Amino acid sequence: MPHTAHPSPRLGLGGRGFTLVELMLALLVLGVLAGLAIPGYNGWQDKVRVKKAQEDIIAISVVIDAYLADTGALPADLAAIGRAGLLDPWGSAYQYQELASVKGKGKARKDHSLVPLNSDYDLYSMGPDRASVGPLTARASRDDILRARNGQFVGPASLF
Prior knowledge:
By secondary structure, this protein is of the alpha+beta class. It has a domain at about 55-160: Glycoprotein, Type 4 Pilin (2-Layer Sandwich), CATH 3.30.700. About 30% of the residues lie in helices and about 10% in strands. It is built from 1 helix and 4 strands. Strands 1-2-3-4 form a 4-stranded antiparallel beta sheet, with helices on one face. The longest helix is centred in the N-terminal third of the chain and has 52 residues, at about 20-70. It is elongated, with a radius of gyration of 28 Å. The relative contact order is 0.11.
């Protein structure tokens, strides 16, 4: 008598599929896991973008300082140092304002006490909202990534 192979019921191969309840439960578990993972991933992405902007600002500052050492003057704009097309992680151009030749303090970025952040030049990213206003007290400026204290601080305006 020939031996006929029968599917083992322990392996679930007996023609039985997943029930609707089992499928719904599996989808629910996947949804919960995705709901937990996506915000964490987005938060991680935001931190990476801020870090990249900080690194770019430091690198641009080094080039500006080298330009100053070579020429004795600050560049008029970022094009003078070959950085005109450099975009921040949110797709906006980095903002630069040379302050040494500007009369008054009207164009300088200012802190919470309305004191200029720098005496030489301002360099910053407008951040995720792609908007900025001179004083850091303005809502549009809170997410800016900036250089302050003549380069001693580089980071989010909210931490300055």
